[in-house]
Amino acid sequence: MQKEPLLQVTGDISIVLCGQAGTGIQTVEQLLVRIFQRSGYHIFATKEYMSRVRGGTNSTTIRVGSTPVQALVDRIDLLIPLNKGSIGHVQHRISSETLILCEPDHFDVDLPQARHVEVPFTQIAEEIGNKLFSNIVAVGLVGALLSVDLSLMTDFIRERFAGKDEVLISGNVQALEKGYEIGIEQVRAKTVQIQIQPDDAVKDDMLINGVEAVGLGTLAGGCNFIGAYPMSPSTGLLTFLAQHADQFGVLVEQAEDEIAGINMALGAWYAGARAIASSSGGGFALMTEGLSLAGMIESPLVVHLAQRPGPATGLPTRTGQEDLNLVLYAGHGEYPRAIFAPGTLQQAYDLTARAFDLADRYQIPVFVMTDQYFVDTYYNTPRFDVSESDVEHQFVKTTKDYRRFALTEDGLSPRGIPGHGDGLVVADSDEHDEHGHITEDLDIRVRMVNKRLARGKLLNQEVIEPTLWPNKEFKSLVLCWGSTLPVVQEALTMLARDDISLLHFAQVWPLPQNLKDRFAQAEKLICLEGNATGQFAVIVKQQTGVDIQEKILKYNGLQFTVEEITASLKKIYG
Question: Which CATH architecture has domain 208-381?
Fold first, then answer.
């Protein structure tokens, strides 16, 4: 009688790598995802990690599918712990359907229901010549389980380590081939049955993460200056633009602090550049005086804020949606702003490019809000359409009678830049007259405040409508914003109810004027957010008068998973 397979999956597989920082977990992840994509599989990958260079325990989740996969799941189909103690870190995600491939001494937890196969990764690596090859043995093993072509894998390994010592390359190839042999043995023995079909179209897709999508949108928006101080998890944008600075003509300034970073960005806009400032919550807190300066001098400004849990240093390498209030109310005084919160890589590209256009046209600060989960998550996506990425600068050539803050009906004054024309371009942080000269004329003060606020009315005409998915007819509506979109979509698919739809907000300020009418059809409203107080739900109530009673909130530093949302919705509906 044939034994039941230890692992049997169809459609998509969830692979988790777990180990201490410094043990090569990122190397295995990077090799596997690139190999899988070249093989035509849809890929999703994300990570959670502790705030330390070495030690601790981190994990990476890789989903491989026949169709697009873009959301985090609790489910672990295949687990590879890279050191002792790793299994315990993800123990809550292990089920009787999980197959663990590990060193003989790494199965160090009491999990009688768990299925595991002992693989002497380190011994094999040492026989080849270096125990560091053990991770490549794992790469070969997993590749074989998913029926990846061996020659494709060896070619990629040689490409990946090109320029290295030939002994190192040869050792990696041997390790790969040995791991592949072990995997083939498992497949032939029918220990593992994985049915995932490749899709040739995937090979033409991009495989990028959230911060790279924001970075590409930044370039498409005509950005040629960034002022920033490194702060997790926003640092990736600074790094991305530095890597492509020469190619796209971007001046990258790692400032001495966040205050200098935002002021440099304002100076760049004043001189005619398109600039971005980037930080996370604690760093942005230092930027708020500069933000008010942008409001007073009516300067365009784009700010990228990658959220992480607070207060203070909080959990510096974890995720959350806790800074919405911070961004909405940041700075002293009153002036308009726009806030974007992309939920997909495509939205990140489109909205970041749009942020520069909107900032330039309305002379306001525009925010692009992401979070640690979003910036570190990547999946294959069709290449972005760059055909409409032409940049139209909004500054004018000044005349001798130029007035920088001329009072106009719509609140928009022609924006000049120094040296472009004959006029004097004055900027001052004090209240000023039309020429920009300091004044304490209280009548002018009132007119200038009204002028600045008038641009907010123009913004209301350009609000991006929230995405309604999947049904126009519904009884219940789940509201979400930012990075939660793909996770909620898959949860609703799993729930399989045609009376529930989601309304996702990629623009969280200003909100649509007709939002209350959008709610009229719903018998039940549910708001899902990655914070403890339902910040977006409160803003919705302030703007519409609608009090959303049901909330699904998470604030432990991790992203929602598909199973969590599904379970929460089932609990609400009984």
Answer: 3-Layer(aba) Sandwich (3.40)
Q: Where are the domains of the chain?
A: 7-204, 208-381, 395-462, 467-573
Pair 463, 367: CB distance under 8 Å: no
DSSP conformation class of 315: -
Report the candidate in 193, 207, 192 with the shortest Cα–Cα distance to residue 69. Answer: 207
CB contact at 8 A, 105 and 179 = no
pTM of the model: 0.96
Is 60 exceeded by the pLDDT of residue 1?
A: no
Task: Give me the sign of the Cα torsion angle 250, 206, 33, 213.
Answer: positive
Between helices 121-128 and 134-145, what is the axis angle to 10°? 120
Other C-beta atoms closer than 10 Å to the C-beta of 517 total 10
Output the CA–CA distances (angstroms, integers) from residue 37 to 10, 66, 185, 532, in the order listed.
18, 11, 24, 37
Residue type, 226: I
Cβ neighbours around 135 below 10 Å, total? 24
CATH topology of domain 467-573: Rossmann fold (3.40.50)
Q: What are the structure tokens assigned to 549, written together?
A: 């009673």
Angle between the 150-160 and 166-188 helix axes, to the nearest 10 degrees? 150
Q: What tens digit of pLDDT does each residue of 134-172 get? A: 999 999 999 999 999 999 999 999 999 998 999 999 999
**What is the per-residue pLDDT across 19-78, written as a single tens digit (0 to 9) for each?**
988 778 889 999 999 999 999 999 999 999 999 877 789 999 999 999 999 999 999 999
End-to-end CA distance of the chain: 42
DSSP state of 370: E
Q: How many CB atoms lie within 10 A of CB 136?
A: 29
CA–CA distance from 495 to each of 68, 98, 501, 567, 571 (Å)?
Answer: 18, 22, 11, 9, 12
What is the structure's pLDDT at 116? 87
Domains 7-204 and 208-381 in one fold:
no
Residue 556 scores a pLDDT above 90 = yes
Q: Is 261 exposed, middle or buried (0-12, 13-18, 19+ CB in 10 A)?
A: buried
426-477 tens-digit pLDDT? 999 999 999 999 999 999 999 999 999 999 999 999 999 999 999 999 999 9
For residue 121, which of 19, 272, 52, 218 has the smallest C-alpha distance?
Answer: 19
CATH topology classification for 7-204: Pyruvate-ferredoxin Oxidoreductase; domain 3 (3.40.920)
Length of the chain: 574
519 has pLDDT over 90:
yes
**CB–CB of 255/229 below 8 Å?**
yes
CB 35 within 8 A of CB 62: no
Q: What span, in angstroms and rounded, lies between the C-alpha atoms of 392 and 224?
A: 14
Kindly state the helix (H) or strand (E) to which residue 251 belongs, with its residue range: strand 251-254
Q: What is the rounded distance in angstroms from the CA atom of residue 138 to the CA atom of residue 180? A: 8
